[in-house]
Structure formats: structure tokens, C-alpha cells
Design goal:
The chain has about 140 residues and is of the alpha+beta class. The strands form 2 sheets. The protein has a 4-stranded antiparallel β-sheet, with no helix packed on it. A two-stranded parallel ribbon has the order 1-6. The longest helix is centred in the middle third of the chain and has 16 residues.
Amino acid sequence: MRNKLKAYAYPIFLPIDAEEAFAGVIDVVNQKAIVWGPGDVTNEGLKYDITEIPERFKQKATDALRELIEAVSNKDDAIAELVLEEKPIEPLVLKAAIRRLTCKIEFVPVLCGSAFKKKAVQVLVDAVVDYLPSPLDVPDAEGL
């Protein structure tokens, strides 16, 4: 009988607009916007600015952070303790908890971006480093 793990998926990035109007992402953990400006064909999507979240997305970002903290606190004791004590949860502490849960296959961080326009590719790579296990964090593969 297989061990059934339940992994929950929550967004850690939210899109700023969509399709042709896609302008960037909201980093839910850090509560910042990462915005790409227009570029020519050769460098489109390579330069970005980290800014405050646009006013029209602030409530959505705040709600997403609250839901993210609630989901993580249901599975991680360190975050649950901070929530119960009503202490602020710093982004680095939340990132560490998400990483612990991801390594245990109990949490799936969800990101968004556009590979075609090269928007959010750099921050995707940063998220891989921040949230996914390195080869040193997982046991060796066993073959049969």
C-alpha cells in the first residue's frame, strides 16, 4: 500500500495583468511587485524593477499572503507558533518554512510568468533556489 501524501499548492506569485498586457508579478511573500518594462526583441524581459504593489492589486496580494501564512501554519510548527502569538512573520522565516514543507512534499509553491516574453524567468530561477531541495537535501535514488 502506498503512502498517500497530501501536498497543497498555493501561489507565491500573482500575475499583474494577463496575455499581451502581462506586465509582471506580485511576490506574495515579500509583498512587492516585480515589473518588466517594454524592451526590444533581443532584451525583452531581461530588465525589471522591484516596486510597491499597484493599488488595484494590494487587497488581492494581502489576501494571498494571509491564505499562504494560514496554509503554511497548518503544516509548520514554527509558523503556527508565530501565528498563535500574533507575531509578525518575516519573509525569510516564511520562505524557510515553505522550503521545509516543499522538501517534505507537503507544499507546492505556484509561480507564474511568460517564457515567450522572458518575463519572470529570472525570479523563477531564484524561487528554485529559495524553495526547492538541493541534491544534498534529498536521499539518494534507489533503483530496483
